[in-house]
Amino acid sequence: MKWLKWFNIFKGMAMGIVETVPGVSSSTIAMLIGIYENIIQSINDLTTKQYRKALLFLFPIVLGILLGAIISAFTVEYLLENHPIPTHFLFMGLILGMLPFIWRSGHLLQGNNCSYKKYHFVVMTLFFLLIASLSFVVSLDETVIVDLTVTDYFYLFFSGWLASIALVLPGMSGALILMIVGAYYTALSALRTLDIPVILTVVAGVIIGILITGKLVRFMLQKYRRSTYAAIIGLLCGSIVILYPGFPAQLTELIISLLLLLIGFFFALTVSSKQKSETDVEEKGDFPE
Fold first, then answer.
1. Most buried pick, 53, 136, 178, 220, via CB within 10 A?
2. Domain ranges of the chain
3. Angle at 174 between CA 55 and CA 270, to 5 degrees
C-alpha cells in the first residue's frame, strides 16, 4: 500500500534528526527501526529494472531525512554556538558509546580463528594516527564558508560523497565525517538558513557517493570485514582527539561536560546494544579477513 511507503517519511525524519549529530549513525537508527536492509536493497535496485519500485520506497525516506536534518540543525547549531565545550563532550560520549557495536560488527563470533589479528590492530593504530594528526590542521571553530567559489562547491560535493559512507555503514556518522573534513558547520548553517545551492551540492555528493562508493564499501565488508571495521575503529578513536575541546576552566561547566559525556556514552551504548550485530548471526563459508 502506497500510504505505508509514505509513512516512511517519519522513519526518515528519525534518521535525519541524528544525522546532524557527530557520533550518532543514521544507518544504525535505520537498523533499529527495521528499514536498513530495505534501504540497501533499494539502493542496489536503482541500477536495475526495479528502479521505479526502489524510488517509491526511497523518496519519502530521503525527504524525511532532509526534514529531520533541518529541524535538528537549529538545536545543534544553538548548542555549538552557546555551549561548545559541553556539546563536544556529548559528541565524544556518543562516539565512545558506539565503539562496542563497531567492535562486534567486525568481530565474528562463530567458528575458529575469528578474533582480530595483530595486523588488524596495526590498521587501527595507523588510522588512529592518521585522523588524530588532523587535529593539528582541523579547527573546531565554527567556520562557515561564505561567498562560495566553484572550488568550494566541488569541496562540498566531495565532502557529501565521503559522508555517504555513513548511510551504508552502520556505526559511522555522516556529521562526524563532515566535521573531520571541515565542512560540518557550513552544511549545518545551510540547513538552518535553507541555503538551497549548498544543500543540493552536499546532497548530490551523498547520492553519487551512495551509488558508487556504497558498492565499494559493501565489497570491503564482504571480503575484508575485520580490516574494514578495524580502520573504522581507528578513525572513530582518532576523531575523539579532533573533537576534544580541552577541559573547561569553570567547575560547573566541567561537571556538566562530564555528565554529558556519560549521558552520550550510555545513550549510544544502549541504542547500539538493541541492534544485534550482523556478525552475531550464523554465517556460512570462510570468515572474511
1. 178
2. 2-277
3. 100
